[in-house]
Specification:
This protein is an alpha+beta fold and about 550 residues long. About 35% of the residues lie in helices and about 25% in strands. It has 17 helices and 19 strands. A hairpin with a 2-residue loop joins strand 2 and strand 3. The protein starts with a strand and ends with a helix. This is SWIM-type domain-containing protein.
Length: about 550
């Protein structure tokens, strides 16, 4: 029987390999099976015909146990292909047939829950048909009734999204500066999508949970990762600290309250119930009595206690996860609703080679992939820190980044560390929070401005969805969309053109009353067609962004 390899070692070897090597392996994942395998005691030799791979031991858990006699080892195709052909330690306990998780089981709703789902669907569909710009008191009353009915029926996700749509509609009516049509469009889409699933065969995920309700207290070790500056347009400011548990899950500890940017510094340096964020993000602590929420927030329980264990550095396991796997997880997170995102799902933990500045960004290389690292805002110190990092071009550092939801090969700067050449203060214990700490050294060249006006082939679909929200049926009837659909077909997007064709057809649908009068059809089919356009755009945008990250 061939030796077994630990998942951590396999992940580390895969992560270290250049993209061109992993692509070759992806093209022929079973190539090692055609090579000659031989055993001499605990040592296995795999003869590729030109090179030889050596495996030392029945269980492989250290990089010194695997080697190849070619010059590129351990970043070569020979070693990576052999490693891919080995069973993982502990894999025998997993049945071969269990290749993927079964689909979630449907749940049965109560009569009150069915009624609440129907009310939410009707309110959302009627609003879409009328158009938000013309909606008045009846539309707001219907949404208010739907939100309250969902709350009483214990459907927290439905209640929350109905409340957000109501708030957005009120903001539009009163010309509030904070109103954003794209966000309102996504909120209305979520309302119709969730209520539609609840009216069909819902799962537990569709019922929703009070995501920020804190559950049972937790005990265990937590490793600090980084702290992030938060200043919102709605008047909140503070610091969010990210930590990781022993299982590699990320959690957040937030101190964000009403205020402006001036309270960030105080929140970073002080804490009411434990080490301040400036220290917690660099500590390993043993925690007791912390409460946990489903979206990854940690809170203070009645008997919360944090004992400092020491400064252990960043946990290697987060950086051992292959970049491609991290990217899939992060892109899936940012393509969905923000309030359904678990803490840390949008993060990348990477070893990056620092490069120079391009307009608005610091270029780094993750393997062979160039990535533009940008600042979420123009505020200091993050913009100055990117300029300082550019002076260390060619050096390798560990970084924590947040993937950009729209721009390919673009991520927000959060933390940097494990790079002695940066000359970080000893008190920082090897890493810096790029939105809060000022790196030592001169700032280098000006950062400039990032070009964000990149072509978006899905913009016609997004624009049509927004037009439907504002103008209702009239905004998307047949002839209105003829030019848009023709453009999509010219750009070889027939599925998108067909989606908008169905939307236009349902917008113009009529029925005859007994009196012979022709009136608009009930809004249900229009709502279904509009929701389908949103499903298409979300899936297509995710696939396009993933493709553009790797081409």
């Amino acid at each position: 029987m061939r030796p077994a390899i630990s998942p951590d070692l396999r992940a580390a070897l895969t992560a270290a390999a250049p993209a061109r090597v992993t692509k070759k392996l992806d093209a022929d994942p079973g190539v090692a099976e055609s090579w000659h395998w031989s055993q001499d005691g605990p040592v296995w030799t795999v003869d590729t015909g030109a090179q030889k791979v050596r495996l030392d031991g029945e269980t492989l858990d250290g990089d010194g146990q695997v080697s190849c006699d070619c010059l590129l080892s351990p970043r070569c195709l020979h070693l990576l292909a052999v490693v891919a052909a080995l069973p993982e330690t502990g894999a025998a306990a997993v049945p071969e047939a269990a290749e993927e998780e079964p689909p979630p089981a449907p749940v049965t709703l109560s009569a009150k829950q069915r009624e609440a789902a129907d009310l939410a669907w009707s309110a959302g569909a009627a609003l879409l048909a009328e158009g938000a710009s013309r909606a008045g008191t009846p539309a707001r009353d219907a949404l208010r009734h739907a939100a309250e009915s969902a709350r009483r029926a214990k459907l927290p996700a439905l209640s929350a999204i109905a409340t957000r749509v109501l708030s957005g509609l009120s903001g539009l009516a009163s010309d509030e500066p904070s109103f954003r049509l794209p966000q309102f469009t996504e909120d209305l889409w979520s309302l119709l999508a969730i209520s539609g699933r609840l009216r069909g065969e819902p799962t537990e995920a569709d019922l929703g949970i009070a995501r920020r309700d804190y559950g049972d207290a937790s005990t265990g070790r937590l490793s600090g990762l980084f702290a992030e500056r938060v200043v919102t347009a709605s008047g909140y400011a503070g610091v969010v600290t990210y930590v990781a548990d022993a299982e590699g899950l990320t959690w957040t500890v937030a101190d964000v309250r009403p205020g402006d940017a001036s309270r960030v510094d105080d929140a970073y340096r002080r804490s009411e119930w434990g080490p301040p964020p400036r220290d917690l993000c660099r500590l390993e602590v043993f925690a007791t009595g912390l409460t946990m929420s489903a979206d990854g927030r940690l809170g203070q329980g009645g008997k919360t206690f944090l004992a400092r264990v020491g400064h252990q550095g960043w946990p290697d396991a987060l950086w051992a996860v292959p970049f491609e796997k991290q990217l899939d997880r992060a892109l899936a997170a940012v393509s969905g609703p923000e309030d359904e995102r678990r803490a840390g799902d949008d993060l990348l933990f990477v070893a990056a080679e620092l490069g120079g500045l391009t307009p608005g960004a610091l270029t780094v290389h993750i393997g062979e992939t160039p990535v533009s690292v940008i600042a979420a805002t123009d505020a200091q110190p993050v913009t100055g820190n990117l300029r300082r990092l550019s002076l260390h071009s060619g050096r390798t550092a560990r970084m924590i980044l947040r993937v950009h939801p729209r721009l390919p090969r673009t991520a927000f700067a959060l933390a940097v560390g494990d790079c002695p050449e940066l000359g970080l203060p000893e008190a920082w214990h090897g890493h810096a929070n790029l939105t809060l700490d000022e790196l030592p050294g001169p700032t280098g060249s000006a950062l400039g401005h990032l070009a964000t006006d990149v072509p978006d082939p899905l913009e016609p679909v997004a624009r049509t969805r927004r037009r439907a929200v504002l103008s209702g049926r009239a905004g998307v009837r047949g002839a209105v969309l003829d030019g848009v659909r023709a453009g999509l077909r010219r750009h070889r997007m027939p599925a998108a053109a067909a989606m908008l064709g169905r939307l236009a057809e349902e917008a113009g649908a009529t029925v005859l009353r007994a009196t012979g009068e022709s009136v608009p059809a009930p809004p249900d089919a229009l709502a279904e067609a509009w929701v389908a356009c949103g499903v298409y755009e979300t899936a297509a945008r995710r696939a396009l962004l993933r493709h553009l990250w790797t081409v």
